[in-house]
Amino acid sequence: MSRIVTLLLLACGLLLSSACQKAPVIPAPQLQALPTQEILNRADAAWTAEDYQQSLTYYGEAQNRTDLSGQKRALSYERAARSALAVKEYERSLQSLRGWAGFDAKVRQTWPWNEYYATALAGSGQDDQLQDFLAGLIVSRQTTWDVRRNAALFQADHFLSKDRPMAAVPALREVYDTAPNREAKASLEQTLLVRLLDLDDKQAIGLLEVGEGQELTFPYSVMRLAAAKRLAETKPKQWDTAWRELRVLLTRGRFADDSLPRVTLRALESQRGAPRTGIALAVPLSDKIGVIGWKIVTGANIAQKQLALQGLNVEVRVVNTSRPGWLNDLNALPPGFTVVGGPLLRSDFQQIVDSKLTRERVFMTFLQSLGELDEGRDAWRFFASPQDQVRALLDLAAGKFGLSEFAVLTPQEPFGTYMTEIFSQEVWDRGLTMAAYGTYPPKTHTAWGGKVAELLGLESAASPGKSGQLPPEPGFRAVFLPDGWTQAQLLAPQFYYYDAEHTLLMGSELWSQAIIGGTDADLNYFGLAVCPGPWWAQSQRSAVRELTRRMADENRGQPDFWHALGYDFVRFAANLGNLPGGWDRKAINERLSTAPAMDWSLAPMSWSQSGKARQDLFLFQPSRKGLVPVDAQELFTKMQQVKQRHDERMELNRAKLEQKAKTAKPVLQGAAQ
């Protein structure tokens, strides 16, 4: 219940309790005729008897006496003000409070005086004056933090009583951010939580909506904690939802007193137990591709064991998509197994779609795209997309290096055309320029040199040096090569041959997949080459170290991308928690977009509010031992150095050609004579 309402009800109660004892009102002439000490004696007696109407009468008269001492005058002002509050004579209360402050200016620096004044303003319906008064206290640096804190809490009570919790946020945040220390912030969190838990069920649970989509910082963190606690206590069927909210607050919430979500969750779990989270995997476990499925399952089992040690009850069930009748197995999963990781093959996913199983369960597919289906409505992705690859490359080339002109050299096949469209669209969306396009026949390697020459604007495939001409400067500094690593080893030397060694070569994820364990390619041609990838085995992230350690403990060798995929998926799905009955895409997208922060072993993933997945891929350079993460500053410096050497060489060649032309001119003139 609002503290303001409590104060006012208390005043009413006091008035009623004293009504039967109330002495008759003394006429003003008789009152004025009484000696000051008698006035005080009667005032004290009325105050002690909780007869606040008489108390107001006598203390009000005492204020007018010139022979009243300083201490007794201050007490008369205070008790007259408080008595007036009790009998709802708010204007008289304000008058006494002003008189008190006029007599003793220091009293305005105390919280009791300010609380009485604010209560009188609230009771008299002067809402605008109340908000101005409280706002002045809250932002004042001449007032102690304790007074400012209490003013913010008073304002919060006022707005909560009017069912306007959002209006309470700015003042609470202001005093929290300016608290003198962590202990003060913790005390404010604790006090606000107690007050929020005094709200009725509807108001308290409604605070979940107030914090929806907000960062889990004060006061939203405390509001959501109060709401989740009340939800768990009053709606047993929504314990899963409340538990998930509490888990989010425990892992992501920012509290000065971090025991608040932890103690609340433990207390509720001791009563109801931690809800079981059911997670399914739909992956192949036989045939040639079965080895990948088993790696995913291995990573998932390791995650399940790790979560069990953290007190999370997670059950993982696997559906073997290589087995006949696997669609029936998938359909027969218990109702709690709503989230399904997979499938891995597009053909399997098509069978799921044709069987209309996407209407029954949430499929987080291990596919680069969902084809014609609507991502975020029909199904979801737990896998990097081609857009993620392009985005990572352009974030480096355009975002960090400042390049604005790009080219694409792609094989004449559907995959190349598809990747070119994605790259070009991203370039255009960023307001950059596609300066050149080029294609080459995938199987006719002898034609590739000429295709590189065309891309660079050369008139023939002959070496510029041999033709006696300087090569034109291409209108781009970076070229996208959406083909495999084997093809890249044949294309890269051509750029050197045609004096374009200063061009940044940008490969696809196919490169990182091929060279993850090392390469024996001539890396002299790949000094300015980058490629994206979702997995970095040498990462020092704690999740990678933990996965590596646990696999070693179980004699399962070194983890790779597929192990990490299963490991991350189960941990992520466990953080999502169980989905409510009758879930819809909006509920799924809300959970995905506000998913708790996680220590990923793969490159981190996130989801938009419309359910579109994004993975912030790593960028690598090839090396003898495998993939080396790109050092953007180091690579940029190297690009500048290579460009400078290129320019110097071109200038030297130009001078040689000019000297050669001058030497040849007299000979030609003599021959003409």
TrEMBL record:
Q: Which SUPFAM superfamilies match?
A: Periplasmic binding protein-like I (SSF53822)
Protein keywords: Signal
Signal peptide residue numbers: 1-22
Q: Where is coiled-coil annotated?
A: none
Q: In which domain of life is the source organism classified?
A: Bacteria
InterPro entries, per database record:
Peripla_BP_I
Report what the protein is called: Leucine-binding protein domain-containing protein
